[in-house]
Design goal:
Largest sheet: 3 strands, antiparallel
Order of helices and strands: HHHHHHEEEHHH
Distance between the termini: 32 Å
Strand content: 5-15%
Length: 200
Amino acid sequence: MHFDYKKDAPIEQVNADFLTKEELVRHRDIYMGEQAAALSVFTDGKDKCDAQVICRLPPSAFPRYMRNMLDSIREDAGGYVCHRAFFASIGSGGAVPAEARELIKSSFGSLEGLRFAFTDAAKKSREQGYLWIAEENLRRHRALKLVFTKGNSLLPPHMHGILCLDMWEHSYSGRYGCDRGAYAAAFLACARWEKLVLVR
């Protein structure tokens, strides 16, 4: 398989208060696995191509016989990229590094301010997609923003995703039912906050 989703989304650190390792592995193997299989058909035995690149390829880059499947190919590629970001955002919990706290404070007032805004955004959105803690690609000043991407759409090119929460119903309904706020709060309790420090 050209898209090795198990390697691209290893599940190592897990906080069972969020989701168990078994729940996460099942989620990854079903949904990301299906996307990997579809993208492997697209590569047609050639070298692996990054899913993010596939999302942004012009129609002329695809073989003629695939152009009528372009939306489906990009959908699978977008889902693969978003899933990879989601699984990379999950840790086992722990303290938020001081540098990350400062960045959060300058963007949301406090860590509590970010938690409120994040869970509120999760509760208010009823669409399927992904909720990101992201930043614009600015050189002089770092500022975090919450961005919701619908379906399997990627963030705009000028945005860099740092932490990503899968907001498709299959990701949370088994444990949290319809309580997207509780799901988002549990995610923040185990998020890999060090990614905010390592991003640059």
